[in-house]
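Reopening this one. Same input as before:
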Amino acid sequence: MDIKLDDILQLKDDELNSSRIELNVTAGRGGEWFLDRWLATDLQNRIEGQTECSYWGWYGTKQRNFYPNDLVFSFVKKGGDEWLFVSAAKILDVPFGQRASYEILEKYRPFFGRLLISYKKKQTYSRYVFKLRSRLKDITVKEILPDLYNGSHFPGYDQVYLSFKELEGIVKRRPADWVNALEHQKAIYLITDKSNGRLYVGSATADSKMLLARWESYVSNGHGGNIELKKIVDSKGSDYIKQNFQYSIIENYNAKIDDEYIRFREMFWKKILQSEKHGYNKNY
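Same output, byte for byte:
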């Protein structure tokens, strides 16, 4: 039997009437992921629900998100349809064009950074604050983590598909399970340009210091030293890479596998995916 968010919040009817849910994704289209911003926040502030991800008072210049005495439950997108509960507060004031002033609802503090919900938000970047009552029936509790979420969730090699922003967050935060999974791993990986479907097949070997180091090079400059990808950065800018490139793993191997075999498999996938003819792979 599914646990509903309502079972956790246990709001009285009059409280529910003044409650809002805040579903934060990024700081503007293509901006910083709020999950990364939350993870970069001081630990004690995360525990206490004091974040810079929540309680922006206005939607544009004409519409308020909140009013004084509203109860607001703030979530940040974790991935897919999963959202992490990061704060809950009573709104005190809503200055124009600023974050609202608020008072943390202490009874929900044990759930900050631990409660995960499942909810399918249909529009990614449009309005993000809703009346809680209108959403409750569609929200289920996925999990209550034993400890504060720290970003360390490696889904398995066959489930990796990362936006540039997500990869950048992993490289900067270096969550333990991602580092353990990637730093000693050889692999054939795929970069997809989501704007046009063009592909780049690459390999991570001992020569390139394994998969984590190889992907770190893409985060550092956008192209990882590849000539064709560098042309894109030079002509379209690094923002194009950040907005459109996705990173996934085709095959993974342990460190004992010979580099020559990895390169053989790389050529195989280039042929299968036609990434030299129709993508960004070129042989020089």
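So the earlier flakiness isn't reproducible anymore. For the record, The CA atoms of residues 10 and 55 lie 21 Å apart.
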